[in-house]
Amino acid sequence: MREGTDQTPVAGVKNRSPLLCSYAEQYQRSKPFDGLTIGVCAPLTPHTGLFADVLATGGGEVLVTGEAGSTHADVVEWLRERPGVTPLAAAGMTADELADTRETVLEAEPDLLADDGAFLLSLVHDRFPEIARGVRGACEQTTGGITRLLAMDEQDALSFPVYDVNGTPMKQHFDNVHGTAESSLSAITSLTDTMIAGSVAVVAGYGHCGRGIARKLRALGARTVVTEVDPRKALEALADGHDVEPMADAVADADLVITATGRYQVLRREHVDTLADGVVVASIGSAIEIDDSALADEATSNTTEKPGVERYELPDGRRVTLLTEGKVVNLAAPGRSGNPSHVMDTTFAMMTRGLADLADSDLPPGLHPVPDHLDREVAHEKLSAMDVDIDQVTAAQRDYHDRWETHDSTKPDEQ
Q: What is the mean pLDDT of residues 3-19?
């Protein structure tokens, strides 16, 4: 097909995903996933569609399911035509229907798993332990998913090695800090016509996602307040110029409340009583962070102003706007595909490289960091695709830092 004539739903993503496209070319020859079945659970956006297609190009039989509110019908139809890919999710599926598709993925006895939120990883250990023992390895790319996996790892519950893709520098400093922040703010402002400058914006959580969006809110002129449970992150937020308060106090004056923790019910029933009139509430972390049932129970009425925007009226007249039912706003808002392709290219590149590494790995069961050399290679590949050169460590520098014996650091070595 000639350049410029591609009308598929992943065409635009391909143009901004040089790493995934280069892997597709390489894998046509090397076939790192030849004979392997790969289960994928992630928001079924064009980015995920391209990722699944690359895995299939590498020889894998790929079964793909999605997450509630973020399945693109055109991507599903495109994947149906791709050799080696079986999409199981469909737009508009309920949570129960999606849960059934995840079971179908696992019943195929996959060799590798690629997860977003640890849905497949928790399910295979809980409901299909015998199948779990046959899995070679998995990759998880989200903060919420890693939180669950840390608990499983501490309890020695993992039956196979899992790479913490979310913990890589390439994921944290680009996807989480910049990609999530920019796409989420764009979704929030387009849904609500909210003006950021001069507003009071509360950000729950100061991990990489929270840090990124708090900084961008402040740069746009918002007065930012951070809520935290970790004293070290709270101190970091203060040092970065944000106020720090408990949630119940912070939301009393808020125009905008954004949760970015991956944790369960960080905005809950006790906070509904102190929410400011007119506040807009959204999640950029996961669908479990906002207790929407508490809002529904407390409200005297609620109306859907437009898709993705619900207005609740409380008994004392306060009005609260909840975006995308508390689901991740940059994915669940109408017409949204999550983070920009520029950063999703690197994240799915890390997932792809991680799965290829695990295909022949002898790692023990448990949660593992992605090997540093893979992270560095992806960074170098991205720079190369952007035509950016960097310096190299000299032989003298390497020799100096490799030697541990006492020496005079102010003088050159004597030969």
A: 84
pTM (predicted TM-score): 0.89
Note the pLDDT tens digit of each residue in 308-343. 999 999 999 999 999 999 999 999 998 888 888 999
Cα first-last separation, the chain: 61
Contact call for residues 27 and 51 (beta carbons, < 8 A): no
Record the tokens describing residue 211, joined without a space.
């840090």
The alpha-carbon radius of gyration of the chain (Å, integer) is 23
Report the candidate in 411, 396, 369, 409 with the shortest Cα–Cα distance to residue 164: 369
Place of tokens 């391209």: 50
Write down the architecture of domain 173-332 according to CATH: 3-Layer(aba) Sandwich (3.40)
What CATH superfamily classification does 11-167+340-385 receive?
Adenosylhomocysteinase-like (3.40.50.1480)
Nearest to 87 by CA among 106, 70, 99, 73: 73
Pair 67, 40: CB distance under 8 Å = no
pLDDT at 1 over 80: no
Q: Determine the number of helices (DSSP H) and then strands (DSSP E) in the chain.
A: 19, 15
How much is the pLDDT for 413?
54
Q: Of the candidates 121, 93, 96, 87, which has an alpha carbon nearest to the alpha carbon of residue 106? A: 121
| Count of C-beta atoms within a 10 Å radius of residue 356 | 21
The residue extents of the domains of the chain are 11-167+340-385, 173-332
